[in-house]
Amino acid sequence: MRKVLPLPRVSRRHRTGCVEVKSYTEHWTCMFPQHGPGKKHERPIILEPWQQKIVDAHPWTFIRGLIHSDGCHITNWTTRLVGGERKRYEYPRYFFTNVSDDIRRMYTDTLDKLGVEWTHCKRGGNPYNISVAKKASVALMDTHVGPKH
User: Domain 42-145: which topology?
Assistant: First the structure.
């Protein structure tokens, strides 16, 4: 942060599983133009070409950051009738939830480039949830995303 904008003060606080970094200046919006007033799902969130190049160069870092901020890895379950007996079936799954169509699109576009299969899970008719549940895709995500702290 100091290399990009050396003028504002930068502070760090060590927390369990992370380091909190803060810097206050009104010029950060020049570096991150998608930030601005209002709710993010009510305004366009578009990566600048230089930002997209970074995402393209480090797609798993981007996916990991999105999952760690707005996603989760869970064990889902259902029941099935097997030989006349109802049995519980469990499987791992990733969910990503965000109200912003643009942010969900960035997530799914990157998953597509990585060969990760995903589906929309609508809740109340809204496509806010993205699910990764196919075994091979979950295994690929497990390899690159890591645990959430």
Answer: Endonuclease I-creI (3.10.28)
